[in-house]
Amino acid sequence: MAVNVSNEARGQWGSKFGFIMAAAGSAVGLGNIWRFPYITGQNGGGAFVLVYLLCVILIGVPLLFTEMGFGRYTKKGTIGAFKDTGANPIFMGLGAIMALLVSFFVLSYYGNIAGWTIGYIFKSLSGSQVPFEEFAANPMNTIPLMGLFTLITILIVRKGISGGIEKASKILMPVLFLLILIVAIRSMSLEGAMKGVDFYLNPDFSKISGQTFLVALGQAFFSMSIGWGIMITYGSYLPKTANIVSSGVWVGMMDAGVALLAGFMIFPAVFAFGKDPAAGPTLVFQVLPDIFNHMPGGAIIGAFFFLLLMVAALTSSISMLEVPASYFMDEKKWSRSKSAWVVGILLFVVGIPSALSQGGSAFFSEMSVSVFGSTYTGFQDILDFFFGTFFIVVVALVTCIYVAWKMPIKNIVSEIDMGAPGWKPNTFASNAFVFFIRYVCPLVILIVLLNMMGVFGIFGGGG
């Protein structure tokens, strides 16, 4: 039974455009610009892009509808949404609680990577030639920068829903999109850049495997904020008149669009400068400075780009902080300010090992874990596998099964119907949605999860 909570008590999005920008801000971040290009390079270029787009359209968007509808139906964050609809301990543990832990632990190392973007603002302006490896290995760089980023995140979450992130997102997300487009055009004008475009867009179908699909699906979850509890929490602040269908489609389109543009920004430059397209997560920090050095006013453009990249990371980090913070607000009746400060400070402490894992500490840099036939080295990479890949897939599967089979699904169909002209029970659109959420999405996610666990083969990469 959903519990009604007044809009004034919980906060509410001020407009449809504001919600779309905020939700897209959650989806569009380092998952698109930092992560998408390097995993595309590691998984064969165009073949991976094709599989990724199919995952977004057929799996990602229906799951966005599901999570947004679930949140608005209950008017609660992820813990309250499951609890108030009568979830048993299994669904509570693997759905609600695990979603909260995913947002918390991913944000703990995400803050470290976002701190790098702050550092690169000043590196661009000063003309510093310090190599990335040396920069990331220095704790005097990484820990204070991570602390600064975490502090900014806390201060914005304290301001509430419409008064904080929504206002900023309306301006910053379109500007970020435009700037990435400008840099992509410049990148493609470099000598030798078309080899990169060919690598990026020409699919080699021999490279498509179960692993390709797994990594693509993990990327869709990572960048679209599915399986984190974020869209459940953000959906809980939606008015009943909001159109979940059009909002979900817009969020999915913007998320995939920025990811694709990031590829056009990275790969032409990778080939033009003779770098390795499978270089890993540092690719964006190695390639972009070279691009800016060949652009008029490159120092200022570079600084502005990393500023906006930091903002893109910030809109995502706010949504991740909101998930555990909303738990304390909804279930423990803490004030928003207290919730934000307590969770944020704990995040900073938990994030320190990640900040030391790029060479700052031998212990955290060299520690390794072998699981499902693969070995992950470094504290940050270990967290990224478990919470940035594996548990996201688990949460998405559990949430999908719970909403489709236990709630029951008609509650979410009716919820989505509010504010969505043409979306009525027993129409083609709603029946197709029910079919995908009940059968297609759970089956596909289950196969991917079993493959990750080595049932169909050895899983060889993260999402």
TrEMBL record:
InterPro entries, per database record: Na/ntran_symport, SNS_sf, YocR/YhdH-like
Family: Belongs to the sodium:neurotransmitter symporter (SNF) (TC 2.A.22) family.
Family matches, as NCBIfam families: Na_transp
Localization (cell): Membrane
Primary location group: membrane
GO molecular function terms noted in the UniProt entry: symporter activity
Name of the protein described by the UniProt record: Transporter
TM region positions: 17-34, 46-65, 86-110, 135-157, 169-188, 208-237, 249-274, 294-319, 340-365, 385-405, 433-459
Membrane disposition: Multi-pass membrane protein
Keywords noted in UniProt: Membrane, Symport, Transmembrane, Transmembrane helix, Transport
Pfam families named among the record's database cross-references: SNF (PF00209)
GO cellular component: membrane
Domain of life: Bacteria
